[in-house]
Amino acid sequence: MLNVQRLEHDDAFRELFKVMIIRRDKLGFDNEDMCSTYLHIANICYSQGQFDKALSFYDSALDGCKGGTLKAAILHSMGNTNTKIDDFETAGEFVLAFFSICVRC
Length: 105
Hints:
105 residues; Serine Threonine Protein Phosphatase 5, Tetratricopeptide repeat; 86% helix
């Protein structure tokens, strides 16, 4: 089961990476579609236990995000990921930022 799941994640990662390149070439970096694609790729990395790689993609997603619920989802994910690597101080900062957006949503 684990090997099948791993293959599915690898396939999903490859497909989303292709989507990311196409969107980047067509739309540029600064748009919500790119932000969402980075978030999906980061989530795949997270589910595979590749937390540093996930954080890199979450950072990219956050850079292009304008705000709202998508930004809240990214901040929440970054908080969770930082707890996985035992960086509780940074995790707390992301969780506080997440809650500040949720109060406004």
